[in-house]
Amino acid sequence: MGSKQVTEKALSMLKSLPRLSLANLRDNPGSKITQKRGRAQHGGDKHGAGNKGSGQRMNYMRLGYETGNNPFYLRMPVELTYYKGHHLRREYPPLSLHQLQSLIDKDRVDISKPIDLASIVKTGLYTFKPDQNQFGIHLTDEGADIFTAKVHIEIQWASEQVIATIEKNGGVITTAYYDPHSLFLLRNPKKFFEAGLAIPRRMIPPPDAIEYYTSAKFRGYLADPEKISKERVKLAQKYGYKLPQIEVDSNYEMLCVRKDPRQIFFGLEPGWVVNLKEESILKPKDEELLTFYAS
Amino acid sequence: MATVLRSRSAFARLFVGKTGQILNNLTDLGAKLAPGTQSVIRHYSNYISSPTIDTVNQDYNYEIFKKPPEWEYVQRLLPFETIPKVTPKDEYPSGWVPPKEEAVNHPYFIPRTKNGELPIYLEITHRGMRRVSKIRKLEGDLWLMNDDIRKFLKNKYNRFVMTRVHDFAKFIEVKGDHVNDLKQWALSKGF
Questions:
Q1: What percentage of chain A has pLDDT greater than the value 70?
Q2: Its domain of life (chain A) (predicted)?
Q3: pLDDT tens, B33-90?
Q4: Is the CB of residue A144 less than 8 Å from the CB of residue A163?
Q5: Contact criterion met (CB < 8 Å) for A122 and B79
Q6: Do B76 and A113 touch (CB under 8 A)?
Q7: With contacts defined as CB-CB under 8 Å, which chain B residues touch A124?
Q8: Other CB atoms closer than 10 Å to residue A194's CB: what's the count?
């Protein structure tokens, strides 16, 4: 049989065979040797788990911990920032645009009103643990193609892609910082109101977060509004969409509502006490209190 | 032991007229500041030289507003009493599909969970080595449903996919990660 015949035969065979896909791919026979867990004298010692400790017990230690060894991230003076302060860093658990859209589809979030951390936690479909160094929502771009809702949203961290997606639909996005104390209030406002305490002031961001929350590029709540409107146009040009005009929008008033940098809840000022039982609000008149709560 | 003499509001006297400089702003807690000059040695390692508070002002002037217009903002923050019902819409961009009415006509039934999702889950055990898709909360003829699922997967993958029926706990397990396939099948049936 000549080589030409072989190739022709192989080609005709390929024509009749099903297409190569993940469903019919497999390793060459004999290329993989599965190791057996031997017993007694047939390799039945520790089975690769080592002698005692976490190898055998399957407990997973915290990042960088080496069971009492001098950890890798402390061993060499060059690698000082390797894991440094990982247990103290601020965490922003993600919420994707797809998740946000499904919350809107299922009527868990009211888009006729401004959305903030409190209204996302209220849905019951977003777990948020401020006691575990979590500082709010990181809105991620997963599902940016299907996102169609026009929202006014205030979150804690967002990428350029997400900002572009929200503004393309005619919405407004702000990134805002909350200190841990106010995060607890936002997670469960009812519990706080029942405690009968005055709503505290929101604290300003820590030094390493100031840059982000004052930047117009990331729509920081401390940024200059004029710079933000300039950045909105810039981003629209970069991503190639026509920026919908907010000024002519029917929901113009709702889209313009902003929290004060010292305010935690929409519409409720620091210093007020909410009485849920009698459905009343106690507002301070004392000069001492007014000067304290004024930002 | 010698008694430790603590000068009342000794630290606060330093800040007379400049309350803004006090870090934990004692005036909010009602400490009255008296004029006077006194040099105080601060011991930052303990609280001995810190000012003390004897009386807290509790009769601040305030006004009560019964059901003010701002009450709407309070109601917005209160949790849902029940899970809100989904109002029918023309389209759901997220891909979520509401259950159809014709789903009741099948001899078996998959109810939606309280969050409106299909009770189909992926169970990963043995350190990620074993993947089993599980359909829970089933009603009706499970064995007939099992046959239909096997037929559907056989058509899709041209091979037999192992399933297991638990008639007492009302669930069906499918070997492998077939969550999306099972969801697709369940939605095609209208569940």
A1: 99
A2: Eukaryota
A3: 555 555 667 677 777 777 777 777 778 899 999 999 999 999 999 999 999 999 999 9
A4: no
A5: yes
A6: yes
A7: 79-80, 83
A8: 13
